[in-house]
Amino acid sequence: MNQIITRVVADDEADLRLDRWFKRHYPWVGHGKLEKLLRTGQVRVNGGRAKAATRLEAGQTLRIPPLGEPPAADAPPAPRILKIDPERIEALQAAVLHKDDAVIVLNKPPGLATQGGTGLNEHLDGLLDYLRFEAAERPRLVHRLDKDTSGVLVLARTAKAAAKLTAALRKREAHKLYWALVTGVPTPRQGKIDMPLAKLPGPLGERMAGDPEAGKSAVTLYRTVATAGRRAAWLAMAPVTGRTHQLRVHAAFINTPIAGDGKYGDAEKQLTGGISRKLHLHARALRLQHPDGDIFQVRAPMPPHMLASWEFLGFDPEEDDADLWLE
To answer: For the chain, what percentages of helix, strand and coil (3-state, to nearest 5) are there?
Structure first.
């Protein structure tokens, strides 16, 4: 690496210290060398000077001076291309809802993790090479969906597009609409859930909980579209903030947990009969500014298990009112 380059802070790197970001991407650069680069202004964040402890924000640009080539033993491995069945590749490519020179919008299937983790052999990040199409470089993730949540997921096809899309998402300029099937009917049937969320420590994996004192602000708008008596309700939910598991925790907070949510739902209150045990949360629609400046919006059809539940409960997925934006 013998030239000045510019890199964009990824969405999942938000709040990371600058020195730890360097440790992740350039492990051969020692702390002393980094401090010298910072003192002399050779490393900059959004064009300005920074310190090793500076907390990064998604979408920020980093000026990286020549750092030399890494020792062979420390060279970061190339992204691993997961080998999957050709039919799976065809299905993934068929899930593309929109594609242009800057953006790909995917209808992510439930059960596919966005990024890798412990025990995950297959994830979208490892499959991005199959979504290159005619482009020279693989697309980039700019936001995430939970593994079992389906629906609209945006990919950037260039670094410039990634920076603009990430900035729009960070500034809450994007409008997201989710559909959920919940147990019970919320009271009131339309409103705002304002409950700060914090991560819970423990060995059972990432888990969030309401914490009015130490939690980060989390706000969700919701509206009841249809009900099946008092047994279940179809909710349209719009997250104003973007905390981990926000909609799932907020739905449980108002005593209407999302159907199939084994982490935040009540096992004794799960819907039975013709209702699948899979999570019933779908990123239905997204509206945001395209990197070229225009506003665009896209909708994603529901996955088969949710369509089957809608039919069983007598809900009409084509109901016009369900697509109104909660603003």
So the answer is: 25, 25, 50
